Structures are given as C-alpha cells and as structure tokens.
Amino acid sequence: MNEPANESYCEAPAVPTPDSAAGPPYAECVLCRKPTEYAASVKGITLCPVCEWQEAQRTACSG
Which of 50, 49, 42, 1 is nearest to 25 (CA)? Predict the structure, then answer.
C-alpha cells in the first residue's frame, strides 16, 4: 500500500484533438459561429480558439 511519492495518485487520460486545417474551408464554432482552426470535414464539436479557452476555464473550475 506504500506508493512512491513521485507517482501521481491518478493520471488524466489523454484527450485526442483533431488536426488543424491547412487552409479553408474551416469548420464553424458550435457556440459563436466564427471560423475555427479545424477543417470543415472534422466530425464532432468544433470550437474557435476563444470558446475553446473559455470552455477549458469552465471545466477547470467546475471541480
């Protein structure tokens, strides 16, 4: 039951992120409708850099 002090209690799983697009057409942000860094062909929720940062702030503070 003695764990070494340098190992973390639990590790966060790696979250896959879509690749950035090399050029247009860009996907639309699902929150503010501005262009994102992702290609239009990317499936799932795409957020612009501002909304992505704000969402990260919300989830970090949600405890």
Answer: 42
Among 22, 14, 18, smallest CA distance to 46 is for: 18
Q: Is the pTM of this model over 0.85?
A: no
20 strand-pairing partners: 38
Type and span of the H or E element at 54: helix 49-61
d(CA 13, CA 27): 26
Q: Which residue matches tokens 């340098």?
A: 6
Q: What is the pLDDT of residues 8-53, one digit of tens each?
A: 556 666 655 566 667 678 889 999 999 998 888 888 888 999 999 9
